[in-house]
Structure formats: structure tokens, C-alpha cells
Amino acid sequence: MHTRLLVIQEVDSGESGKALREAGECLRKGGLVAFPTETVYGLGGDALNPASSKKIYAAKGRPSDNPLIVHIYRWEDIYRVSSSVPAQAKAIADAFWPGPLTMILPKSEEVPYETTGGLDTVAVRMPSHPVAARLIEYAGGFVAAPSANASGRPSPTSARYVMEDMEGRIDMVIDGGEVGIGLESTIIDLTVTPPQILRPGYVTQEMLSEVLGRVDLDVTALRADSGQAPKAPGMKYRHYAPKGELTIVSGPMDQVAEYINAKTDAHKAAGEKTGVIGTNEALAEYHADVVKSVGSRQDELEIGKRLYRILREFDDENVDCIYSEAFDTGGYGQAIMNRLLKAAGHHVVSLGDKGEL
Ligand code: AMP
Ligand code: MG
Predict the structure, then answer these.
(1) 187, 191, 239: which to mutate for ligand 1, most atoms within 8 A of CB?
(2) How far, in Å, CA of 118 to CA of 306, rounded?
(3) Whose C-alpha lies nearest to ligand 1, atom 10?
(4) pTM, rounded to two decimals
(5) I need a labelling partner for 151 at 20 to 30 A (CA). Which of 40, 61, 110, 158 fits?
(6) pLDDT single digits (tens) 262-310
């Protein structure tokens, strides 16, 4: 299959508007189109067409028990995909939609089990990216879209990475530039009391609690030793895994740098290529072959935005083992640590008093 790459500057300009309509038409006919959202690039298909959802799983190599998120572009369409919309859903939609927040609700009959991975619940999100919003409208209003990476690779933050994974497997890729956030949406389950965050993201536990009162976080989001299975089926898979072996080192910064250097020196002596994911504040300390900065410790948004790109770059450079600094496990740091822990298969070394994990 030839994959067309369409570059969109502004959704309303003549050429781009035409391209978006074409992409919408392709989705209506059961095709697959990757598109930018404010979180990461999504791989879209018609959410109400079982054949489209099956094609999404095939293109990604995704296990079919891992449900897809249904994207809508206006509030009232939530009643088409969910049979029971609680007041809490309206409250958080008013606060955070359109935006990087997904809610789990009871599904309606119209949503096929192929889209929900066999579950009676459905994940719904209204993205804020103008290209995404317009494409969903042109596609008929309901676009199932997981992240547009091949299963097991980091989610793509630019069209280049989508093409890397999906060229030849889908009909179109819409290039709308680099994404703003870089980590997937927060997922909150509203079918349980109190509501539970299944995947931390840009909309934090604190932000949700301000609207809903008590909100819990799935214990598996930040710990591997809870002995429980994650509530979001997709979270049990080792996503985002770089090819090199990744270890997270937490603790006081001077001890972290010392530990990482001792390890990378030893790996280098054994002929292995070593890498470090560090912050600007400590970057000059490291001895590894490839040292990459995720940004400043003071700027978590930047860290989230760079993380997946850096993991992909390590793959391109064929690094054998990677060590990463740890990040705070409060606020937005929860989302960063959750993705990093999954990339590392929860392999964490805690040093000194401050080792929190
Ligand atoms: P992705 O779109 O690739 O970011 O993945 C979607 C995530 O949403 C996966 O982790 C899924 O397991 C999760 N998800 C989608 N639908 C549901 C649902 N009905 N219940 C729980 N988790 C869901
Ligand atoms: Mg994904």
C-alpha cells in the first residue's frame, strides 16, 4: 500500500482544507489515517466500523484485547458512544475538553466490541488540536485512534516517526508538525467510585480532584510490585521499550551521577555502547558514549515533550544500555515516571534516603 503524506499548515486554508476533507472521506470509507493531536500522533479509523478497528490492530501489530480510544469533536456526541453519562463526565469535560483527557464510560450498542477490545466500557476523548478536531468532523464524528506507533515502540511525536513505523501499512499520514505535549492523554475511569486514574497524563490527579473530589490513581501506574494487573488493558504491555536495556536511577543527584558513571564505565570496558538520559543540571557529569538531555529539572513539560523522541534516538544509535535519572512522582511527574518505568520494565535502582520507589 502506498502511504500518502499530506502536510497541513492551517485547517481552513484552501489546499489544507481540501486535503483534510479527502482524509475524512478516506476514514468514512474504512481507510486508516494518522493525524496529529496535542498529545501524540494518532492512528485513526472509523470507530463505529468494526472492520476499521480490526485494520488498526493489524497495522500496529497491537494485541486485540487492548481497546482503542474513541475521539469526538463535540460534546453531544458522547451520548452516541455511551449509554450512561454521569454528571462527573460533564463536569470534567467542562474543565478539560477539548484537551488531553480520556474518560471511561459504559459503552453504547453503537460502539462495536472490535473498538473496545471486547469490553462493555468505552474510552472517549475530545482532542483540542485543530487538525484532529476538523478531521474527526469530516470523518463523521467518531474516530478510533491509538497512538500511531508500531506496538512496542514509543508513541510518535512527529510525522517523521509515524512514517518510520507505518509507511506502507496505512492510507495517509497528516503532517501537522511536532506535537505540543508529547505524552498520551490522562485516562480516568468514571465507572468506579471514587473515579480512578488508569494512566497519568497532562491533566493531573490534583487537577481532577479539584473538580471531582477524591480521585484515586491505579496503584500499578507507578509500582511494579503491587501484585495487581493494571486496569487499562494496554498498560500491562511493555510499551515504549527502547532496544537498549534501560535502568532508572533514583536518589540524591550526586549519588545518581556517581552510580551511573561507575556502571557506564564498566559497560564501556566490556565493549558495550552506553547512554544516559539526564537533565541539563547534571549533564556535564556523565561519562557515557551518548548523553542526551530531556531538558531542565525545572521544566517538566519540556521533559515530557522530549522523552519519546530521545528513546527513539537511542534506538537509532544502537545503544546497548541506557541509564536515566528519575523524576518526581507528584503532579505531572507522575506521567513522566509512569512512561519511563514502562520503558524500563520497572527496572529501578534506588540510592540513599531519597530513593522513593
Ligand atoms: P493508546 O491510544 O495507544 O494511547 O492506548 C489507549 C489506552 O487506553 C490503552 O492503555 C487502553 O488499554 C486504554 N483503554 C481504552 N479503552 C479502555 C477501556 N474501555 N477501559 C480501560 N482502558 C481503556
Ligand atoms: Mg499507545
Answers:
(1) 187
(2) 34
(3) 234
(4) 0.95
(5) 110
(6) 999 999 999 999 999 999 999 999 999 999 999 999 999 999 999 999 9
